[in-house]
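Suppose a classmate hands you a notebook page containing two proteins, each written out with its sequence and a corresponding row of structure tokens. How would you begin to make sense of it? This section walks through that situation. The first entry is reproduced here exactly as it would appear on such a page.
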Amino acid sequence: MGDEATRVRDAVAADVAHIQAIYARHVLQGLASFEEVAPDSAEIAARMESVRAMGLPWLVAERGASVAGYAYAALYRTRSGYRYTLEDSVYVREGFTGHGIGEALLRALIERCSTGRWRQMVAVIGDSANVASIGLHRKLGFRHVGTLDAVGFKLGRWVDSVFMQRPLGDGGTTLPE
């Protein structure tokens, strides 16, 4: 990868096929997502539109001419009491891990979400052995708030969900406007 810089930008329609390919690999071979059937490009485009319709960011990271990863924030839960809490999702293309792509994406995502009305960001990390994602989130100010043991079953084994959380903006220190 050399000394190429990582550029984070808003995703565009032309990125959907790249995003779908990145996510499909994670769905079919990894434990970060508990989905077991990879959604097609039309479904990814619909998900992207849904996120953007809420005023939330969907970002891609480029390294050279390649889409090296993507990240987005969505509502943590849809019930109104959770309206100030977001969940982050970060996925990196195979062959690009360990080069700061995930960090660049998550940093940009946190920065963008901190300018909005949201007050908390939650990470729901598939697999308690996912030390890379846990470490990334910890590095960017998330703290471990719990683990649900063996709540998923994928690729022939039980999988934990690790919950991490960080404040956005004033967090819970002031009332929302």
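The notebook's second entry, a different protein, reads as follows.
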Amino acid sequence: MKFDMGSQTLSQLTQQTSGASQELGAQVRLLAAAAEPLEGKFNGQGRVAFDQFKARVDEIAVSLDAALTAVLGGIRGQDQAFGQGDLQMADASRATQGSIDFDAAKFNAR
């Protein structure tokens, strides 16, 4: 099995996720604003759930933002680890190549 990922994949994912984080909180607030005409139309447990949602809109938006911020931190850490691993592999390859006698592998016609 081969896993091939471009060097910019995680950086691009970080940028896309960052934008989505801001949009998600805004969408939760828009949902609450769109539901305002329904306020007072529910009774019983439906009303309780609706009121709880309305009361917690900001908390929900902030929690979603915090969760996506944590995801972004993980992606940044992976990006850094992959970048360091790539550099270490290149350094190790150059060091090994420098110690090999390529002249010994030449086949001379006699």
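A careful reader of the second entry would note: The longest helix spans residues 44-98.
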